[in-house]
Fold this sequence. Notes:
heterodimer; A: 110 residues; mainly beta; 6-stranded mixed sheet; B: 112 residues; 7-stranded mixed sheet; 11 strands
Amino acid sequence: GENVEQHPSTLSVQEGDSAVIKCTYSDSASNYFPWYKQELGKRPQLIIDIRSNVGEKKDQRIAVTLNKTAKHFSLHITETQPEDSAVYFCAAWATNKLIFGTGTLLAVQP
Amino acid sequence: DAMVIQNPRYQVTQFGKPVTLSCSQTLNHNVMYWYQQKSSQAPKLLFHYYDKDFNNEADTPDNFQSRRPNTSFCFLDIRSPGLGDAAMYLCATGQGSGYEQYFGPGTRLTVT
């Protein structure tokens, strides 16, 4: 079945450094790739998304890249801040539902 | 503000005692989803409604049922909760396929 692999499972960076989270999906028909940020005890919140007809999208400190051939997509956070600390989930749209990755716990050390 | 609302935010039930969680939306989205999320895990889709069409995930236990009486409301019924059903239950809405899903704040279910 459809699958999304996400790495790393935990990531610790110093404030101001960049963070990169990578995902790989299995369904070549997937055409929508959102990234969600989830703080402890709160709902997942969309931070950025990309469609299959675009290779890169940027929103201030956050960017997402997509390589359809390799079925890879990545989240890049620059100039990390302590408030970026959370669990990040990638997802891929496949067959009428989102398939989520397993999540990355990002810790930004002040 | 348009939003997804879940009630209650916290629910405690006894082992085997039926419980109903509710979700309402003011976004007028045609798709509503129910997810189960356990600690440190990704949300797990239980089922979704595309308009009135019900779509059950193959691995969703029969213990879980859902109702969508109208566009705005959707309910999750757990007929006989077990200890393993303790989790955060998230409702989400979306407009069509392949678009952003908007999550509600969740209901934290505890089974004693």
